[in-house]
UniProtKB/TrEMBL annotation:
<dbReference type="Pfam" id="PF00072">
    <property type="entry name" value="Response_reg"/>
</dbReference>
<dbReference type="InterPro" id="IPR000792">
    <property type="entry name" value="Tscrpt_reg_LuxR_C"/>
</dbReference>
<dbReference type="Pfam" id="PF00196">
    <property type="entry name" value="GerE"/>
</dbReference>
<dbReference type="GO" id="GO:0006355">
    <property type="term" value="P:regulation of DNA-templated transcription"/>
</dbReference>
<dbReference type="InterPro" id="IPR039420">
    <property type="entry name" value="WalR-like"/>
</dbReference>
<dbReference type="GO" id="GO:0003677">
    <property type="term" value="F:DNA binding"/>
</dbReference>
<feature type="domain" description="Response regulatory">
    <location>
        <begin position="3"/>
        <end position="119"/>
    </location>
</feature>
<dbReference type="InterPro" id="IPR011006">
    <property type="entry name" value="CheY-like_superfamily"/>
</dbReference>
<protein>
    <submittedName>
        <fullName>Two-component system response regulator</fullName>
    </submittedName>
</protein>
<keyword id="KW-0238">DNA-binding</keyword>
<dbReference type="InterPro" id="IPR001789">
    <property type="entry name" value="Sig_transdc_resp-reg_receiver"/>
</dbReference>
<keyword id="KW-0597">Phosphoprotein</keyword>
<feature type="domain" description="HTH luxR-type">
    <location>
        <begin position="135"/>
        <end position="199"/>
    </location>
</feature>
<dbReference type="InterPro" id="IPR016032">
    <property type="entry name" value="Sig_transdc_resp-reg_C-effctor"/>
</dbReference>
<feature type="modified residue" description="4-aspartylphosphate">
    <location>
        <position position="54"/>
    </location>
</feature>
<dbReference type="GO" id="GO:0000160">
    <property type="term" value="P:phosphorelay signal transduction system"/>
</dbReference>
């Protein structure tokens, strides 16, 4: 039995993945979390064989959590799930020893197969993600700018983003202005569209 930790902040998506993976006779989801900060504590408690992590998690992102896992629980392999490709994230993932990189809309059977393969010690990187990532180029946004835009994309207003990221509202507005200037967006909605299309923030 392959023990799995699943990290996904969207409740319905996480529930569907847990249900589908549980149908596989050799797979068992031993922990499910919604925030990046919950990954390592749960992994150390439940000792999963494979961690399946959404790259765009609140708290700390999936790649940062994967890096912590590789240091503190090296027996646990990691698979990243992403809605969009980003060459910088793929390069970062390779450096920290991530075993798999799959699109979030991959069929459940493909995810199950990837879990089995990385558990055997293989590396599974989706070819379409790689091609798309290097077509769009590196992400020009800083980590903080991505955090701000991701929260805005999820419907948070400036005050909400400021509270969540422990920033002043004026600082959030400055970040948004810098983002729009960097990527040539007309407004916040356009900035979200551009960043999502190019895989610079999660959908």
């Amino acid at each position: 039995m392959i023990r799995i930790l699943l990290a996904e902040d969207m409740h319905m998506v996480r529930g569907a993945l847990v249900a589908l993976l549980s149908l596989e006779p050799d797979l068992e989801v031993v922990a499910e979390v919604a925030e990046g900060t919950a990954i390592l504590p749960n992994a150390l408690t439940h000792r999963p064989d494979v961690a399946v992590l959404d790259i765009g998690l609140p708290g700390i992102d999936g790649l940062a959590a994967a890096g912590a896992l590789s240091q503190q629980l090296p027996t646990c392999r990691t698979i990243m799930l992403t809605s969009h490709a980003d060459s910088a994230n793929i390069a970062r993932a390779m450096l920290i020893g991530v075993s798999g990189f799959l699109p979030k809309d991959a069929p459940p059977t493909r995810l199950a197969d990837a879990i089995r393969r990385v558990h055997r010690g293989e590396r599974v990187i989706d070819s379409e993600i790689v091609v798309a990532a290097f077509h769009h180029g590196p992400n020009p946004l800083t980590e903080r700018e991505r955090d701000v835009l991701t929260h805005v994309a999820k419907g948070s207003d400036v005050s909400d983003v400021a509270a969540k990221l422990y920033l002043a509202p004026g600082t959030v507005r400055n970040y948004l202005s810098a983002i729009m200037s960097k990527i040539g967006a007309r407004n916040r909605v356009d900035a979200i569209r551009i960043a999502r299309d190019r895989g610079w923030i999660s959908a």
